[in-house]
């Protein structure tokens, strides 16, 4: 706990310096949100319900997806740069495990970013206020926060997994965008899973991706029963541990390869 | 006139050398090549299926039927492939050159600095890959729509695609030229990429005022929307000239702006 606190303070100090950059990325990320909203407004001109979503529910879906996206980060470049530049050595010598350091710093960094971007987020909510729905109760809110926590942590682990490719090859840059696109697509971030054909949904249900977007958003919209929420949360935690173990496996092999050429 | 021809010949020769280098590069890094191309393919498949899944629930989007939108998406992918293949690892680096002072090295070369920053790394072949699925989508959509385009229409379409690539290049360079004023911004090229994504959507989804902007100030609508409309027979042939004019204007503007920005450049050390 004391270690975690120490990391927290360091990250806080480092990150309050780049406010302009945070706003810059935020404004950029608004462009796709508005394109999607415009697109859906046109689609709903002819019909009231599409794939069991009403227009307000769907717009809310994308707003919540946007918020999750603002809260999560694939720390891929950060890790790959540490590896290729050799700065990782300094981290390996520290008395905290790199993973603990990584996770805590990613989450704090995102929370800071989110706090800085809050005015803009509120402005977006105000612009779309005639469509935005609020959660139906306190229980839903608590479950939603837990689900978002799972999503954010899972996102970080996925990012670290891709970043550790840098142990073996020097370039991860161009894979990154597609990787993110596929995570978003399979996670239900670009289209709600209700639009997917049944066979694909049954495959996605066996994979961890839906915990990135679809699960937290469906919790928020009140589309899941209490039993579904509880089993979902448990499954999400299970996937976190599974991915964490897989990452540990990759990491150990990577560090070995790193030491091999580091000398 | 002869001087002009000589100059073009010289630049073409230099460009071919750059391209040859990039071919050698990708032949040497074959694993890297596949490592990049496979996720690219997944990305296109994912976006394509987003569209297909959407059409299982709705009949038309802003008046566009499924094959029509596939035609638009195919056209977008061709332009996307050309623009990214030629520019992503060239222009995207401009901000880096400026804030590190590496631009000095480029300015010392006996060629136009705009040419050098736009082409010195040749072609990024994996980034050009979307051209192939793009062409397949166009062919599929055309046969499904039963459009038997005349030679003149196809020629006009091809000319418009070339213009689109020039417009995209110019917009990209203009975005990155702002580096001379704003200093270091990692991922400045993302500004262009985000705006570029508008081009794969039907322009009708935007309001009237926004549409005017997208045809004139930021001519993203001309990139893939306009050529697609020509193929669909919704535009008169004359629109080809609008694209040509836009391409010439945006290229000249980018060229002027680059020179203007360069005047502000004073390297980093001194």
From TrEMBL, chain A:
InterPro entries: ABC-2_transporter-like. It holds the Pfam family ABC2_membrane_6. The chain crosses the membrane at residues 22-41, 53-72, 111-132, 144-169, 181-207, 227-251. Keywords: Membrane, Transmembrane, Transmembrane helix. PANTHER family: SLR1174 PROTEIN (PTHR36832:SF1), SLR1174 PROTEIN-RELATED (PTHR36832). This is ABC-2 family transporter protein. It comes from candidate division WWE3 bacterium. The lineage of its organism: Bacteria, Katanobacteria.
């Amino acid at each position: 706990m004391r270690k975690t606190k120490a990391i927290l303070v360091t990250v806080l100090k480092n990150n309050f310096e780049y406010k302009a950059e945070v706003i810059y990325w935020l404004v950029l990320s608004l462009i796709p949100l508005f394109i999607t909203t415009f697109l859906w407004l046109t689609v709903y001109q002819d019909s009231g319900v599409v794939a069991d979503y009403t227009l307000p529910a769907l717009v809310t879906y994308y707003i919540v997806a946007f918020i999750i996206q603002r809260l999560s980060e694939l720390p891929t470049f950060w890790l790959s740069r540490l590896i290729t530049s050799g700065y990782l050595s300094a981290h390996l010598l520290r008395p905290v495990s790199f993973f603990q350091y990584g996770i805590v710093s990613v989450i704090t960094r995102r929370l800071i970013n989110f706090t800085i971007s809050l005015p803009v987020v509120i402005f977006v909510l105000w612009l779309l206020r005639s469509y935005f729905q609020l959660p139906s109760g306190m229980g839903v809110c608590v479950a939603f926060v837990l689900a978002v926590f799972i999503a954010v942590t899972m996102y970080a682990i996925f990012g670290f997994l891709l970043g550790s490719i840098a142990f073996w090859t020097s370039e991860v840059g161009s894979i990154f965008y597609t990787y993110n696109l596929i995570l978003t697509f399979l996670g239900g971030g670009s289209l709600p899973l209700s639009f997917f054909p049944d066979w694909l949904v049954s495959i996605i249900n066996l994979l961890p991706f839906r915990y990135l977007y679809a699960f937290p958003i469906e919790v928020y919209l009140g589309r899941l029963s209490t039993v579904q929420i509880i089993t979902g949360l448990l499954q999400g935690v299970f996937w976190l541990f599974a991915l964490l173990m897989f990452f540990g496996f990759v990491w150990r092999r990577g560090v070995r390869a790193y030491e091999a050429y580091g000398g | 006139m002869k001087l002009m021809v000589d100059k073009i010949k010289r630049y073409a020769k230099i460009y071919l050398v750059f391209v040859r280098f990039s071919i050698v590069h990708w032949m040497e890094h074959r694993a890297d090549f596949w490592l990049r191309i496979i996720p690219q393919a997944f990305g296109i498949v994912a976006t394509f299926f987003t569209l297909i899944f959407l059409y299982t629930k709705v009949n038309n989007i802003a008046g566009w039927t499924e094959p029509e939108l596939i035609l638009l998406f195919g056209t977008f992918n061709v332009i996307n492939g050309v623009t990214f293949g030629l520019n992503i690892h060239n222009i995207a680096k401009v901000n880096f050159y400026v804030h590190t002072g590496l631009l000095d090295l480029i300015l010392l070369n006996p060629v136009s600095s705009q040419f050098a920053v736009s082409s010195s790394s040749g072609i990024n072949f994996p980034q050009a890959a979307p051209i192939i699925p793009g062409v397949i989508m166009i062919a599929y959509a055309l046969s499904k729509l039963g459009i038997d385009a005349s030679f003149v229409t196809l020629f006009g379409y091809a000319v418009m695609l070339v213009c689109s690539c020039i417009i995209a290049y110019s917009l990209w360079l203009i975005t990155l030229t702002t580096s001379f004023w704003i200093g270091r911004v990692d991922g400045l090229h993302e500004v262009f990429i985000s705006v570029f994504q508008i081009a794969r959507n039907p322009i009708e989804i935007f309001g009237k005022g926004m549409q005017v902007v997208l045809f004139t100030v930021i001519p993203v609508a001309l990139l893939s929307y306009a050529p697609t409309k020509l193929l669909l027979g919704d535009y008169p042939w004359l629109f080809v000239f609008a694209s040509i004019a836009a391409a010439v204007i945006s290229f000249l503007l980018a060229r002027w702006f680059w020179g203007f920005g360069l005047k502000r450049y004073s390297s980093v050390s001194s």
